[in-house]
Amino acid sequence: xxxxxxxxxxxxxxxxxxxxxxxxxxxxxxxxxxxxxxxxxxxxxxxxxxxxxxxxxxxxxxxxxxxxxxxxxxxxxxxxxxxxxxxxxxxxxxxxxxxxxxxxxxxxxxxxxxxxxxxxxxxxxxxxxxxxxxxxxxxxxxxxxxxxxxxxxxxxxxxxxxxxxxxxxxxxxxxxxxxxxxxxxxxxxxxxxxxxxxxxxxxxxxxxxxxxxxxxxxxxxxxxxxxxxxxxxxxxxxxxxxx
Length: 243
Hints:
Layout: H1 2-29, H2 34-55, E1 59-63, E2 74-78, H3 84-92, E3 97-102, H4 111-117, E4 121-123, H5 127-142, E5 146-149, H6 167-174, E6 179-186, H7 188-191, E7 204-209, H8 222-242
Parallel strand pairs: 1-7, 2-5, 2-6, 3-4, 3-5
Antiparallel strand pairs: 6-7
């Protein structure tokens, strides 16, 4: 518990410093180059996320790196176990990409404003909000920016894989030339369980990057397509778990 308290104090200080740096230089460069502004804020966020992991002495084992070409544009999909999944994404994915996040995170002081400057996407409840978020995802993808999305919609309480939400098919239909890159994450729930606060250091995260695919080339109805994602993620998750 002492480690958790010290960790949260240090990580809060780090968060404030990084947010102030990103917001300040993001706003200064915005009038001259929006792209540079986004890059500065996003790069600061990656430094923040990776440092958060280092402070908890987290190590990684990544399989399937050959399946990921960071210079390509993807719909990056990953299973969701813990709040630490976000930090892991900063370690796994390279280049420029945009997170798809709940709109509540956009209201967090400093962090929310930084996310907006990074050109991240906020998902709001309701028909109008859902349409706007799909429009934003399409905009990023068609401008050669990958998006990171958690198809399950929320963190799994027990770590087991859940069926994905239908929203992922909506963006896949609009951007039918963009492949989905499925990524399996195992071990973050051991650092911090969903809706928990205790941080357990010195854990090892196992990551498996699977071959990309295109939803539009999978025959069948929506349920068949969603089950395809679920089956490959669940199969590989259980392999990582049992090994």
